Amino acid sequence: MRTYTLLAHNLTWYWRTNAAVLLGVATATGVLGGAALVGESVRASLRDLVLARLGNTDSIVTRAGFFRQDLAAGTPIIALEGVVDHEAGVEVYGMDTPQVLITAALAQELGAKPGDDILLRIPKPSPIPLESLHGRKDDVGRTIRLTVGQPERPAAGISDLPPFSLRPQQGDVRAVYVPLSRLQRDLNQPGKVNTILVDHASINLKRHYTLADVGLRVRTLEKPGCLSLESDSALIGDAVAAAAGSLGFRIQPILTYLANGIRVGKREIPYSLVTAIDSNLAPAHDDGITLNDWAARELGARVGDPVTLEYYVWRSDARLHTETAPFRVERIVPLAGDAADPNFAPDYPGITESRNLRDWDPPFPLDMTRIRPADEQYWNRYRTTPKAFIRLARGRALWGTRFGSLTSIRVRIQTGLGDFPPSPAFAEALRTALDPARAGLTVVPVRAQSLEAARGATDFGEYFVYFSFFLMVSALLLTGLFFKLGIEQRTREIGVLRSLGFSVSKIRTLFLLEGAVLALAGAVAGVGAALLYGALVLLGLRTWWFDAVGTRLLGLHASVPPLALGAAAGVVTGLASVAWTLRGLRPVTPRALLAGDLGAAWLGRRFRLPAATLAVLLAAASLFAGQTAGFFGAGTLLLVAALLFQSAWFHTRGSQHIGGLVALGLRSVRYRPGRSVLCIGLIASATFVIASLEAFRRDGSPAGAFQLVADSELPIFQNIPPLEGVEFIPFRVHPGDDASCLNLYQPQNPRILAPPPRNPWPLLDSRLPGGTVPAIADANSMTYSLHRKLGEEFELAGVRYRIVAALQDSVFQGELLISEENFLSLFPDSAGYRFFLIRTPPGKADEVARTLTSALADYGFVVQSTAARLASFHKVENTYLSTFRALGGLGLLLGTVGLAAVLMRNVLERRRELALLRAVGYRPRHLFTMVLAENVFLLLMGLATGAVCAALATAPAVFARGGHVPVASLAILLALVAATGIASSSMATAAALRSPLLDALKSE
Amino acid sequence: MLEISNVTKQYPTPRGPLTVLSAVSLSLDRGEAAAIMGPSGSGKSTLLYIAGALEPPTAGTVTLGGVNPYTIPEKELAAFRNQSIGFVFQDDCLLPQCSVLENVLVPTLVAKDRAVYPARARELLRQVGLEDRLDHRPAALSGGEKQRVALARALVLRPRLLLCDEPTGNLDEASAEMVAALLLELHAQQATILIVVTHNPALAARFPKRYELRHANLHPAGA
């Protein structure tokens, strides 16, 4: 006989109790391991999904404009976003495919099948910035009619290509794949693309790119004898200008602008080019102007005469403004030599190629009546030769834009006399000096970014662990309860061992060893349970709780760390639970043990009330620690406090009059106070989860000041149709990742919006040290997607932001808001407005939405009611709550099992008492009433405890949300829980009393 | 030698302390045996448990071989009980999960020199007539057989003091007779100090010293 022999006997002899303990540990392990596994599986699924969609792509070479398709070794594609048959937000890829294919998801949306025609509307590429004077704002898109091709394997869906996508998204890919050559032809970009997929990370762009790839060209001008650096955009950016200036050549920056009129007194020359340049043609003073002699003659101007230049400027309010600037004639030069150079002006589409002035087709209004025959003659003879010259600084001040403030840079050899460097040498020097990224040509490590994003905006593991916490506690309480029942069952055995000379510590060690074996076995079984639990939760996320994740592509990814974590936690907590149960052995005398009395509970009576009070105080303090931490911290502490109070109460000597069967039954609550408190704790934990989640549920959506929100696929300027009584607040948009709860991927570069300058958020305009950009985020997105706090600074794509305010339950859940000034500085290439808040007259919202959708269909203008957009966010939130409520339901199931076990055990222990009552004339229904009264009391106490603690713990969050409490649904829910509990208690009572009680008397 | 001197035992009640034993004294030498009788609730078992170091007295002292068990730490007390005292209870208090032999050997699990005891356990079980039931579980035994196992278990570590609380209380007459005979025989063999608490006059009559507990005091039987 060895100790382990006794241990083995104990384990097998009390197998029922031990199996229950083992199952409790297995449940705790399964819940924790499963929760962690869900998090790991979601991450792995997102990772697999994004990698499958990226294919071999590691990085992409990309630019806002187009560049040579053989710039880098890789797969050249055109990647755009467009509108297909009014379905906006469609990914458009021009790639190596023999026919037009669309993804199954898009086909389903469109109801399209092979052979059908679809209309694709995509942004029209334009090297000229849309928000510059010469940008064509009324012609931003191009419509292409495509015929959907027949996939080689129709059974695989409408597209037999893997659903290639560069966008990390958990939902189905909505994309159209167009033959590259077709798209290049339709976009008039032969041999050019805007993206090259590269299957490796190390790309030396600097070695391979040419100036043409970043929209630059170097022209040799024989007549003045120089090189001219020009840009496809007609504007040279500051980075390029700085690089050109750093080469050691003598450079001459030039800014040529179109003046609507040059006026002296009442005489005017319309539509003339004016060049700002610091050369021998320039005046000496900033307010001076040099006229060529043709202009001076036409204007009748003499040196010293005042001159007014009238011109258009495109301001950041997306409007064309006519402005004027006063000058004084400082010089009049002959229209010859340098002054007769038509190459000062860049190529302006619609202007420079025109044969006559009247043929001009600029993207701004022209008053043809102002054009005189003399002007036509000048155009015919001198073309784009400027009629006036001003100083460069003045010109840049008047006409500089965020895209650049030069139209060309002329280059001469610094030491030469009229000689200039060979064009290739200068181009190579500039190319080497210029960082292609500064010119907009970048390498984006999409695979690395996508993998980072696949870590997930929402740590499902963390959330499931949070919400499984109470379920786990329930399982551990149940473990403790069963172990306690087992020990109570063996009280006399412990007494015998004590009388035989076993010390308390020896006995405790023996039980701890038993507990350790059970905890280990439970943890091993729990690993299987974790796999099952994880698989079930993922199944739920794919089906019942689809709205929370928006994808059916999540799969179980069994990995060791979460399972090991669950198993380790199961062993530790299981053992702790056993140790906790054994804590009361010491104070009990062997004689008491032999009499079957396990003695008082762990915490002396005098400590319970102070401990409970302390817990209440800590709970109150934790309510101020933030909503989430406060909720969990306060909730746990409040539950502990409530249970301590109840424990103290049950341990007081009851002296109430026994007035009936119910009162007699309730006396039994005090018979085993520990058991009663554990039962209440089990029910209360589950009720707490269920009730608190119900309080977080959002059913209604506030109307707000704006009834509609709209997104536009293509930028909109001032072409919104005027509607009576309808107010539009346009926002600039820098496309990026959706930062709302609708996106499971961690947003790496969230979408950024800029409201117009007059907005209700003056904090956006605050100046922060170090150039930090003030930003406003939706509170939920900030916390759960971006994982930031109010006031926190963080960096995105090299820009430092600080969240200066958070919006509660707003429509801006997918983006960050910054000021327009900062926006235009950070994203100068962004043009127009693509997001709108729309205020409509009462009752007109639907009509306005229909009108706008129809009128702006070409822009991919999608209008949605604000309430619907908020509801879509709330739907996700509510689905999460449903998910977690299901966990609460499981907890309740455990609670009910615990209650039933206690009931059974109590009846078993009190068989002699109950038999005696039968002997003295009690009928079975009397006993049923007594036993049921006790259990219903425990059930109701548990429900009340959980509900009250939930109400207190959720109070800060409820008040923050406007104090709305779904009382009715909560009451119905609790009533259902109570009814279920009473029904199961009734069944357990009936089962427990079914055994022949009178035998208990006979055995006496 | 067992020396119980002026032992008083009181239990707290809402109405004040209840005195169960009042200045009880008893002295027994090695090899002596005594039976204690008395009505239910008179404190017989309490006195037995106090003598067996299972329940401390409110006042007075108990010494066994000169050692007062209530003055030593819990671990040493457990070892003291293990080595010096054997118990037989009214209910056999056998471990249902262990076989007969294992039940006898349970005390040896916390004793020194464990190797010598299996043979002694077998010998004791042979002496109580259960040598062919070694591997049986308690559930397979009759009440008398269980008490015989309990007796063997109480003696396996050669205790100086053997305490029996109604050892025949749950047995039929024949079984009770057999258990009583074995008890006295083994007591004689091992020269233990034996105290038996019983309601059974026939059993008490077999003891040379008999006492009665009345009104919290110990009186010689018949006095």
List keywords for this structure.
heterodimer; A: 1004 residues; alpha+beta; nine-stranded mixed sheet; 27 strands; 45% helix; elongated; B: 223 residues; alpha/beta; Rossmann fold; six-stranded mixed sheet; three-stranded antiparallel sheet; 9 strands; 25% strand
Summarize the structure.
The complex is a heterodimer of chains A (1004) and B (223). By secondary structure, chain A is an alpha+beta fold.
What would the average pLDDT of chain B be, to the nearest integer? 87
What structural category characterises the helix and strand content of chain A?
alpha+beta
Chains forming the largest contact: A-B, 29 and 35 residues
How many helices of chain A in DSSP terms? 29
Q: What is the total number of structural domains of chain A?
A: 4
Instruction: Tell me the total number of β-strands of chain A.
Output: 27
Number of strands of chain B: 9
Q: What fold name goes in the CATH topology slot of chain B? A: Rossmann fold
Oligomer: heterodimer
Task: Outline the fold blueprint.
The complex is a heterodimer of chains A (1004) and B (223).
Chain A: H1 3-13, H2 15-54, E1 59-68, E2 75-84, E3 87-95, E4 101-102, H3 104-110, E5 117-123, E6 141-147, E7 175-179, H4 180-186, E8 192-198, H5 205-208, E9 216-221, E10 226-231, H6 238-245, E11 250-264, E12 267-277, E13 288-292, H7 293-299, E14 306-314, E15 320-333, H8 373-382, E16 388-390, H9 392-399, E17 408-412, H10 423-433, E18 442-444, H11 446-453, H12 460-489, H13 491-499, H14 504-542, H15 546-549, H16 560-582, H17 590-594, H18 605-622, H19 627-651, H20 661-667, H21 673-696, E19 708-716, E20 727-734, E21 751-754, E22 773-778, H22 779-785, E23 793-796, E24 799-807, E25 815-817, H23 820-826, E26 833-839, H24 845-855, E27 861-865, H25 866-909, H26 911-919, H27 924-960, H28 967-992, H29 998-1002
Parallel strand pairs in A: 3-7, 12-16, 13-15, 21-25, 22-24
Antiparallel strand pairs in A: 1-8, 1-18, 2-3, 2-5, 2-8, 4-7, 5-6, 9-10, 10-17, 11-12, 11-14, 11-17, 13-16, 14-15, 19-26, 19-27, 20-21, 20-26, 22-25, 23-24
Helix pairs in contact in A: 1-14, 2-11, 2-12, 2-14, 2-16, 12-16, 12-21, 12-25, 14-16, 18-19, 19-21, 19-27, 20-27, 21-25, 21-27, 21-28, 25-27, 25-28, 27-28
Chain B: E1 2-11, E2 18-28, E3 33-37, H1 44-51, E4 59-64, H2 74-84, E5 85-88, H3 100-105, H4 117-127, H5 143-155, E6 161-165, H6 173-190, E7 193-197, H7 201-205, E8 209-214, E9 217-220
Helix pairs in contact in B: 5-6
